[in-house]
Design a protein that fits this description.
By secondary structure, this protein is an alpha/beta fold. It is 37% helix and 16% strand. The protein contains 7 helices and 10 strands. The strands form 3 sheets. It has a 6-stranded mixed sheet with strand order 3-10-8-6-4-5, with helices on both faces. Strands 1-2 form a two-stranded parallel sheet. A hairpin with a 2-residue loop joins strand 4 and strand 5. Helix 5 runs parallel beside helix 6 and helix 6 packs parallel to helix 7. It starts with 8 loop residues before the first helix and ends with a strand. 29% of the residues are buried.
C-alpha cells in the first residue's frame, strides 16, 4: 500500500512504474471542492490544471486519465469489478412511486440530464414538479439537506402543496464509466429521511448501490421508495 496526496500526480506515476502497474481502477470519492482548497499540486498536476479550459469533474479526471495513458497506464472502468452493485431496472422497494412522485421523477430526470450535459452535478431534488435544489460542487448529501431546509422554511406558504421531496440522481448523458459514477448508500437514505424525501430515482445500469440490502432495508423503514429507470 502506498499513501499519496491527491496533488502528487508525478509520484503516482513513478510509484505505478516502479511497481510494474499497467492497469488501474479508481475507487472512492474525490470531492470536487478539494481541488480548490487543501490540495497542493505538484508541477505535473499544476501544468495539467493550467492547460484546462474548464475544471469540472470530467475535464479534471479525464485529463489525469490521459496523462496516465500517455505513460502506459490504462485506467479501467471503475465498475469493472462491481457489476453486481449496479442498479437493476425496476422498483427496488415494496412501495412503488405515487402518481405525484412519478411526475417528479420524470421532471427531475429531464432537469438532471440537462445539468449533466454541462457536468454541473448529478442530483436534483423536486417537490410538486418544481425544482427545489440542484447539485453543484457541494455534493449530493448537501444538496438534499439544502432542499430539506428550503421546504422547512416555507412554513404555512406550503400548506396547499406536498412537502415531500423526490431525489433524482442520474448519470451524465455521456457518462465516462472510469470515474465519477453515481453512488447511493446508507448515508443517502439517512440524509433523505431527515430532509423529508420520500422517493429516490436513479439510472439503471449506471448507479452503484453500496451496502445494497442494508440500504434498501433502511429505505423501507423510512417509507422511501427506490426506483431505477432505464
Amino acid at each position: 500500500m502506498h499513501w499519496l496526496s491527491l496533488g502528487e500526480l508525478s509520484k503516482l506515476i513513478e510509484t505505478f512504474k516502479r511497481e510494474g502497474v499497467h492497469r488501474a481502477v479508481m475507487a472512492g470519492q474525490v470531492k470536487h471542492k478539494q481541488i480548490f482548497s487543501s490540495i497542493r499540486p505538484d508541477w505535473r498536476l499544476a501544468k495539467l490544471l493550467l492547460s484546462l479550459r474548464t475544471r469540472n469533474t470530467d475535464a479534471l479526471l479525464g485529463a489525469v486519465a490521459k496523462v496516465l495513458g500517455d505513460e502506459g497506464i490504462v485506467l479501467e472502468n471503475s465498475t469493472a469489478l462491481l457489476e453486481p452493485l449496479l442498479a437493476k431496472p425496476g422498483v427496488l422497494t415494496q412501495r412503488a412511486p405515487t402518481g405525484q412522485e412519478t411526475k417528479n421523477i420524470e421532471y427531475g430526470r429531464m432537469v438532471a440530464r440537462n445539468l449533466g450535459t454541462y457536468d454541473i452535478g448529478q442530483t436534483v431534488v423536486v417537490a410538486e414538479t418544481a425544482c427545489v435544489a440542484v447539485e453543484a460542487m457541494e455534493g449530493t448529501d448537501a444538496t438534499i439537506e439544502r432542499a430539506g431546509h428550503i421546504m422547512g422554511s416555507l412554513g404555512d406558504q406550503a400548506s396547499l402543496l406536498s412537502r415531500a421531496l423526490t431525489v433524482v440522481k442520474t448519470a451524465k448523458p455521456n457518462q465516462d464509466m472510469r470515474f465519477d459514477v453515481p453512488v447511493v448508500g446508507l448515508k443517502t437514505i439517512e440524509v433523505m429521511k431527515k430532509a423529508g424525501a420520500t422517493c429516490l430515482a436513479v439510472d439503471a445500469g449506471a448507479c452503484l448501490f453500496l451496502d445494497g440490502s442494508e440500504t434498501f432495508a433502511a429505505a423501507e423503514a423510512a417509507g422511501i421508495c427506490v426506483v431505477c429507470k432505464e
